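Table S2 (continued). Query chain:
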Amino acid sequence: MEFNARYLLIAIFALAALAGGAGFVYWLENSGGFGPRTEYRIVYPVSVSGMARGGKVLFNGLQVGEIRELTLDANRPDAFVAIVSVDSRTPVREDTTAGIDYEGLTGAANVMLTGGTAQSPLLQASNGEPATIIADPLASRSWTQAAARALGSLETVFSGNKDRFENILKGLERMTGGAEEKNGVLTDLLPPKGFPARSEPVSWQLAIGEPSVLLSLNTDKVLELKSPVQWAQLGSAKWTDNLPNLFQTKLIQGFENAGLDTAVLRPADALDPENRLNIDIRYFHFRAYENPAAIIDLYAKIVDRDGGIVASRRFTAEEPSASTDPDDAIAAMGTLFTNTAREIITWSEAQL
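Corresponding output:
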């Protein structure tokens, strides 16, 4: 009796394992549910890569079933058919649309069913055949196909309007100065020299900051005024640095040439300088109309550490040019800067 009972227990265990395995397989085949299922026939009028039997069926983003079968449509060589099994409680209606949902950029292709209106009747099978949904071609393309079509459309647009786009690009280059990119001659400014010899160092200190300028002057381009309202680059000439930084550097060199190298410094070299020289450049350009000349107009202020104005003065001058030729214009601007820098140095020392 004990021998027979042992075999009976083994048989019961084996049957239970088989039943459990069959139930697990059924569970997998029905996407985790044992409820009633409804099949639908989805026709895709475009090719779809990455779709396979057993893939997910999503309804508004939620998984409601799986792909049961993939077949070709004999009546439509450009299409294929996906037979899907969906939870019968899913409200698939006559205006429900079908597309593709990809898991990541290179993931599997899943069937995506999207909503429909509440007023639309539920989609019903007819003549014992699953109800058919024609997939939306635009929602059935992969991102690579969509990108290829978009690039193809852009290529068509650009090829048909090549001259027009080239003119637009040339206009943008002229507006931003990109069309003027040439290997022009770099132009430097010369600090003043030839100051009288100094017998002893001065007791004051002066921090020389970078001048403030209009946006149009904050550039390395040498500018000319062709008319009272028309500005342009002087040929292809450029300064060796942006004008504010170049002006500051050469002015400091001028102070050093005057024997004031221990008295002047940049603001970054002193946390609390005794005095500061602030310069606001209004104009520094070449006037090409009427009487050609280099023009400078700036305002200088010496300010103490408490913000009080020690002294201020406006420096304005013109340097005539022999012609509007870029070489003559640049020579006039160089001479004008050197003379103005000398005046600023002499004036500053007299105030301190």
